[in-house]
From TrEMBL:
GO terms for molecular function: amino acid transmembrane transporter activity. It is found in: Membrane. GO terms for cellular component: plasma membrane. It comes from Caenorhabditis auriculariae. This is Cationic amino acid transporter C-terminal domain-containing protein. The lineage of its organism: Eukaryota, Metazoa, Ecdysozoa, Nematoda, Chromadorea.
């Protein structure tokens, strides 16, 4: 009984009426503000932090396809985010969406990982910002710091070479700026984003003049394809890393509680920013890999170094300035989203209640910003940028996957039709399945959980068969084919149910096909991440589960609400019982 009660508590759903717009935050952001917030958050991270390392070590020129694949997969997830933004325009992004769709424990898992995602992403950007400025100044900052403070590690694989005081300070300054309020943050972000886009146009146009298409065609001295020097697997591994570049659109959803018209603004801003950013990534990576051979690309200052090799010093300075603009907007976007996600979790009682405090003048979750901003600054101070980037993608991919699953779940739940005063057929089977009569006895929509769980499990096993090489043997091919058939059967099982008829400003087309395709691609990307990334993920989740089961599960608003309902019910039953006993004659009276 206790285990059943624990299960009910872990998977209870958040009670959030559709269209609920009440918020302690200020609704002051337009669609344009939110679009540029997304573009600014994404455009600096992918181009200036990620491109050089992925080209040099993972994908080579096929990074063009890596960015495109990651962009398509992110767009599929973005469609799902857009539907949730129209359905539930509240802060918390994937966290709130998961809470509404599949339950509290999964919501905590996603929220906890989004917090880490924004912290590590911002720390990586701060270290890269410091590195670009240091490069412009002839390494004066790093040399001075090492001379005065010294090195901070002896052969460590994850600590930085020296304490990056500039990265620490830039995080602190961005936190101070974000604390001034949403409108001030977004106005500053919009200005720098426009400047950064102008620099990108100049860089692409100038870089194409140095294009050498022989760098993409034919084979090298080792017999490897010049376009796929690390093979097709390298392209997929590059796509998994490139997901870091698209984490900004997740941050768009956190602005839903401060948008003037979130049901309209969030979908439009999501599609617009995704399209702009994907095009910029593809063009920038193409111009880079057509300028210099992939094995000569600088891993941390790729574009400025490429122009320096060509003797184009003006372009080198322009790229460095664009990098500073782009990474600043990404930092603003990351530090804007971070405290709002913490606020959403704390407001629901899953994190400590003090983190939900709002500054009455600026209407910013100030305590969450101070505490988690300080933690981010310390991470930027001591950790190596490569270590930080490696750890980012897994949380992002997990968030995208669960949101996609939630769209399928919610589409196949019954919805109440107020005009008719009854529920529709959502979640009911279209026809009887021989030998599975028990499904008809389940609550409408409940069988969808079984179908989607089986489909995701089959996706993971199938992907593992391909990535591990099991599918190359005869027995492995038979087993892989069986897993593909199981995933297809699970998909058809979901398709055999009626969808609900709820009306939304935006709905994902071709459900369950597009969300299922998103799940499949995200699964493949996750399976290309290193085992060490999974180990770090397990460590972070151990801390998270300790907080949830030690605090969150008993302080959740849903827990308190359930206790209040039980108390009222018990009081009512006691009153009714006492009244009945007074009205009836007692057999014990003489």
């Amino acid at each position: 009984m206790r285990l059943w009660n624990l299960r009910e508590r872990c998977f209870r759903l958040k009670n959030l009426p559709a269209g609920e717009l009440t918020t302690p935050l200020r609704r002051c952001l337009s669609t344009f503000d939110i679009t540029l917030l997304g573009v600014g958050h994404m455009i600096g991270a992918g181009i200036y932090v990620l491109t050089g390392a992925v080209v040099r070590n993972t994908a080579g020129p096929s990074i063009v396809l890596s960015f495109l694949l990651a962009g398509v997969a992110s767009l599929l997830s973005a469609l799902c985010y857009a539907e949730f933004g129209a359905r539930f325009p509240k802060a918390g992004s994937a966290y709130t969406y998961t809470y509404v769709g599949v339950g509290e424990l999964w919501a905590f898992v996603i929220g906890w990982n989004i917090v880490l995602e924004h912290m590590i992403g911002s720390a990586a950007l701060a270290r890269s910002w410091s590195g670009y400025l240091d490069s412009l100044l002839g390494n004066v900052i790093s040399n001075t710091t090492i001379a005065r403070v010294g090195h901070i590690h002896e052969g460590s694989s994850f600590l930085g070479d020296y304490p990056d005081l500039l990265a620490f300070l830039i995080i602190v300054l961005v936190c101070v700026f974000v604390a001034m309020g949403s409108k001030a943050s977004t106005n500053f972000n919009s200005l720098l984003t426009v400047l950064n886009m102008a620099v990108i146009v100049v860089v692409v146009g100038y870089g194409i003049t140095y294009a050498d298409f022989s760098l993409w065609t034919g084979v090298d001295d080792s017999g490897n394809s010049k376009f796929f020097p690390y093979g097709v697997g390298g392209m997929f591994a590059g796509a998994a890393s490139c997901f870091f570049a698209y984490i900004g659109f997740d941050g768009l959803a956190t602005a839903g509680e401060e948008a003037k018209n979130p049901a309209r603004s969030i979908p439009i801003a999501t599609f617009a920013s995704m399209s702009i950013v994907t095009l910029a990534y593809v063009l920038m990576s193409a111009s880079l890999t057509l300028m210099v051979p992939y094995d000569q690309v600088h891993p941390s200052a790729a574009f400025s170094d490429a122009f320096a090799l060509k003797g184009a010093n003006f372009a080198k300075v322009a790229v460095s300035m664009g990098a500073l603009f782009g990474m600043t907007t990404s930092l603003v976007g990351g530090m804007f989203a971070l405290p709002r996600c913490v606020f959403a979790m704390a407001e629901d009682g899953l994190l400590f209640q003090s983190l939900a405090s709002i500054n009455p003048r600026t209407q910013v979750p100030i305590q969450a910003l101070m505490i988690f901003g300080a933690m981010t600054a310390v991470i930027a101070l001591i950790f190596d940028i490569t270590t930080l980037v490696e750890f980012l993608s897994i949380g992002t991919l997990l968030a995208y996957s669960i949101v996609s699953a939630c769209v399928i779940v919610l589409r196949y739940q019954p919805s109440y039709r107020h005009d008719e005063g009854l529920y529709d057929n959502g979640g009911k089977l279209r026809f009887s399945i021989p030998g599975m009569a028990f499904l008809e006895r389940l609550e409408a929509g409940h069988s969808i959980y079984y179908g989607i769980t089986l489909m995701i499990a089959a996706f993971y096993v199938t992907g593992f068969c391909f990535t591990s090489g099991i599918a190359q043997s005869t027995g492995g091919q038979v087993f892989t084919a069986l897993m593909i058939l199981i995933s297809l059967a699970a998909f058809l099982f979901i398709l055999a149910h009626y969808q609900n008829t709820s009306q939304l400003d935006f709905k994902v087309p071709f459900v369950p096909l597009l969300p299922s395709l998103s799940l499949l691609i995200n699964t493949i990307m996750m399976l290309h991440l290193s085992p060490l990334t999974w180990l770090r993920f397990a460590f972070w989740m151990t801390i998270g589960f300790a907080i949830y089961f030690g605090y969150g599960i008993t302080h959740s608003k849903e827990e308190i609400s359930a206790a209040e309902r039980f108390s009222k019910s018990s009081t009512y039953d006691s009153v009714v019982t006492a009244s009945t006993l007074q009205d009836e004659p007692s057999s014990l009276q003489p």
